[in-house]
Amino acid sequence: MVLSRFVVFSFLLVLANLSAASTSQSAQIMKVGMSGAFSGDNASMGEDFSAGARAAFSRFKSETGHTVQLMAMDDAYEPRKVASNVRALIEESFVDVLFGNIGTPTVAVSAPIALENKTLLFAPVTGSSVIRPITPDRYLINYRASYEEELAAVFDALAAELNLTPDDIALFNQQDMFGSTGRKHLNKLIEKHNIDPKYDLFQMEYSRNTLAVEHAVADLLIRNPTPKVIFMIGSAGPSAKFIRLTREYGLDPLFVGISFMGSRLFVEQLQDIPARILVTQVVPSFRDKALPVAIDFREDMAKYSPQAKLNPLSFEGYIAARIFTKPFSNELPTSREKIIDALESLGEFDIGLGVPLMLSPQEHQASHSVWLTQLKVGQLVSIPFSAASKLYLDYANLLE
Q1: 97 to 169, 258, 329: CA distances (angstroms)
Q2: What is the tens place of the pLDDT at every residue in 329-362?
Q3: pTM above 0.70, yes or no
Q4: Count: domains in the chain
Q5: Range of 331's domain?
Q6: Which of 226-253 are b and which e, b meaning 16 or more Cβ less than 10 Å from the residue's Cβ?
């Protein structure tokens, strides 16, 4: 009888251990949810960012055995589609984190829902101040530099070498909060550099998710004198069309855009257009053969996402995912709050990016670094900021 009880007890103990092991194994899966553009003119943005992120998550699984499952939903860069996507991800798919949501007007919808549900929104693809409060919010953590930092980096470089006047500067922007925030930042820079603001900033606008830029081009054609530098706060399709039409009419300003503009679509549509185009970036060159994370990126994309395109946006997705998984090499956290605690505990850290990164309770933007690229020979090529003014002056570059 005693033996029988011992056997039963041992059997129950084995079952308990198996159950615990099963629970432990299931705890090593984390779900992250993304609402982004996977259709329409901005479809390449969702495709490229998610491809880079998935490659990094696959690397993480191969190194740790832990799974980060990326669940993506299409919002076509339409704010009205975002709320239902985000609520479905949180309430039906039970994601632990919202990851990499794309665009300012769309993130303006998803961020309040994240806060309402106490769910982290990590590394959204926007530099908007909307999700960069002065006092960091616990449930908003960014990877990338802000749009203000992007604009300041290139504007400061130009203003340091050139005697810009109000007539020299114009703005082409999207007619929404994305564009209006860019206008505000640009006006601050004009004031910072004591450029006489005797006239309002010359501005040309288009409506989001349209290619209706002809009226903006018409406004530019009748502008006298013609601006020498056009800053661009817009998405890829309309920005590319504006540049193409401007060049067809014989105008040759320096076009200066921020990272959100420089997607795969933008490059593809302007390959045959001789124009002077600068685009700021929130990542270094993925082609850099000396940068450890760039080497990892190229290898992991070839291994895990071989059909995907390598470009700054897929590199951003990769970097964001590498940062996100950095605290979890031993085990995945068991709650949403512990995810945030782990990320905030990173302090100053390094993933081989070549610049300092920091996350803490007081710092919810990992990077403040900005890089500069020039669209040349059908690709975005890294150049130093000191070259910006030379491009402004040197028309001979068009003939190269």
Answers
A1: 41, 27, 17
A2: 999 998 999 999 999 999 999 999 999 999 999 9
A3: yes
A4: 2
A5: 27-144+287-368
A6: bbbbbbbbbbbbbbbbbbbbbbeeebeb
